[in-house]
Amino acid sequence: MTVTSERTRQATTDLPPAPAPAPFPTGTQRLPMAKALNLGMRRALANDPRALLMGEDIGRLGGVFRVTDGLFAEFGEDRVVDTPLAESGIVGTAIGLALRGYRPVVEIQFDGFVFPAFDQITTQLAKMHYRSQGRLKLPVVIRIPFGGGIGAVEHHSESPEALFAHTAGLRVVSPSTPADAFTMIQQAIASPDPVIFLEPKGRYWEKGDVDLDAPLPAPHGGPADLDHARVVRAGTDVTVVAYGPTVATALKAAEAAAAEGTSIEVVDLRTISPLDTATVAASVQRTGRCVVVHEAPVLYGSGAEVAARITEECFFHLQAPVLRVGGFHTPYPVAKIEHDYLPGLDRLLDAVDRALAF
Amino acid sequence: MSTSAPAADGPLTDDGLVQLLTPAGERVAHPEYDAWAAELDGERLRAMYRDMVLTRRFDTEATSLQRQGELALYAQCLGQEAAQIGSGHALAPQDHVFPSYREHGVALARGLEMTDLLRLFRGVDHGGWDPAAHGFHLFTLVIGSHTLHATGYAMGVQRDGLVGTGDPTRDTAVVTYFGDGATAQGDVSEALVFSSVNQAPVVLFCQNNQFAISEPTSRQSRVPLADRAPGFGVPSVRVDGNDVVATYAVTRQALERARSGGGPTFVEAFTYRMGAHTTSDDPTRYRTSEQEEHWRRRDPIERLRVHLERTGELPEVFQAQLAAESDAFGEHVRAAVRAMGHPSPHSMFEHVYATPHAVVESERAWFAQYEQSFVGPDGRTTGGHR
């Protein structure tokens, strides 16, 4: 590699050498989502020499959430790139690198910081394959820690998924578990399409089992790909559709409802674009009731799209209107009251009760 | 640290312009750039002259086609032929160009089928050529966005180890074209930042044609545009953009710096948009005929023609051949545009994604079935249900 500058080299020599990377773990491990994402990217970097990571503070610091911890030491500054502090520039240069045959994985530090790059994502990245009649491939992943619940200052807790899902040319996905995070980040990097990869930052440190030896399913085509929703808890009375941070909420709600004699089926949407209507519709045709829950504001949110499609596809199966639970039509509020804004267990169960009582 | 006030003419000053051909077509010496122009013998100057003449013919034909309703819109490059052909001829085959949308001359120098450029303006596709075939990316209409693509592409060239090898057939540079208006965009500043800190092999080629649609360059900057780049750590040069020899020389130097690992250069080619912004524009609302006449007397093609005639490098037989070639080219442009055909409505669903997307596929299937519902039993369309 040729781009190590003299100045960077000098700065490096002032610091103690980074510890040698630990061997890649094997077997099934209980890991937090942040570590699962880290290992997924580590495997992608090791397997694909054209893959590289770009973002603010992702190198020596390992990212503000430490999701890229250790990768700079292992793969070097040409493949784990500390970029200038300019989101449009990060995504714009990632597009150029992709046009040259690289597979950039961009980290946007926080959801609220993605908007300087909005033109590059929606106008350039999303449309270039279409404009070129398929001649130009744009395998770019934009990782965005999203959602709230961490007591942060403003612009650090937002859920902008509908803004991207509304743009043709982008795929928009969000894992809800460490296992899915490990698999889906690798699939996103392998996908020939641009992928907006929304990481539920409030769940970064929740642990789950991850099979590190399982073969990686293809990114597209097949039930375990990036394009399919998954029933994560079977039930008979109400379908709750969730994704990202609200899947855990939905599972807790199902547990609480079960104690009261209500059987909730939970669908983890996993992908917001494309929307896997078939999996949701099959569930609602069994239960007759549907509640969608996300942290993003309800107005024009992805829940509205689910509700409209389920109403069309399941009209004669529905016992109640599809109900939505989510954020209000306000800016994300201050941290001291964010849990009154976020759709928690009680608000979700209230909607379930309303659906049942209809 | 400079604390001086902006130049009296602000961004339109003549100060510091590199010029090798005067407006009267006289070759003048330059201590730094003569060496970079030395390889331009009579034959190569004639090749540039030919490309400038054909570029103008293309411009004229396309403008007429728009007036005849054959194109929805057209953006002329009239008056900017020297800036485009001079820089275009300085490129190596392995170099890659990221144009804005007015770089018809550069496209011609890169060997594109010129009528492919007009598919966009006719509305039959968004970009009708293969960027890899000629190292010429699609046009970018959102001002300045592509300067970042060029910078990222150049960062990829670095990672491919194609900078500073010393092999002139392998060392690769990237050039991106944009206008004076684009320099106000954040993306252009970010391209300067990213190209500078990475020492990316990219030439940021600004054609200052003095207008962003109607707004003069003084609405974008208080200082010459090239003066901004050194603050980013990017060397810059101002060149007479109506002087094809000087434009060639400064671009050659900048490309060589990029290929050899010396990093980016900002070139400001100071020129004049002799035509309208596009066929929808009306320049009489914002500039005077006196000003237009002033710049008509600095016509870049005329300047080279006079120079070639003076030096005995423009034989009559060449001129006659070029006139015939230009006529045939014009005929080809007219015929090719009229023969472009109508895109299938089903094509709108093609290439939205590289791999099938369930929503697009279901909408594609629905639309096909809907269209089919208009076809009667005799296989002909009924023209609608109502």
TrEMBL record, chain A:
Which intervals of the chain are annotated as region Disordered? 1-27
Enzymatic class: oxidoreductase
Protein name in UniProt: 3-methyl-2-oxobutanoate dehydrogenase (2-methylpropanoyl-transferring)
Query: Cross-referenced InterPro entries, in alphabetical order?
Result: THDP-binding (IPR029061), Transketo_C/PFOR_II (IPR009014), Transketolase-like_Pyr-bd (IPR005475), Transketolase_C (IPR033248)
- For this protein, the parts annotated as crossing the membrane are none
User: What are the protein's UniProt keywords?
Assistant: Oxidoreductase
Sorted alphabetically, which SUPFAM superfamilies does this protein's record hold? Thiamin diphosphate-binding fold (THDP-binding) (SSF52518), TK C-terminal domain-like (SSF52922)
TrEMBL record, chain B:
Name the Pfam families for this protein: E1_dh
Q: Does the keyword Zinc-finger apply?
A: no
- Gene3D superfamilies per the record? 3.40.50.970
The answer on whether this UniProt entry bears the keyword Oxidoreductase reads: yes
Q: Which cofactor does it need?
A: thiamine diphosphate
Ranges for domain Dehydrogenase E1 component come to 50-321
Instruction: List UniProt keywords, sorted A-Z.
Output: Oxidoreductase, Pyruvate, Thiamine pyrophosphate
Reading the lineage from the top rank, the first entry is Bacteria
- Name the PANTHER family on file: 2-OXOISOVALERATE DEHYDROGENASE SUBUNIT ALPHA, MITOCHONDRIAL
Q: Which NCBIfam families match?
A: PDH_E1_alph_x
Q: What is this protein called?
A: Pyruvate dehydrogenase E1 component subunit alpha
Instruction: Report the source organism.
Output: Cellulomonas phragmiteti
Q: Recite the lineage of the species.
A: Bacteria, Bacillati, Actinomycetota, Actinomycetes, Micrococcales
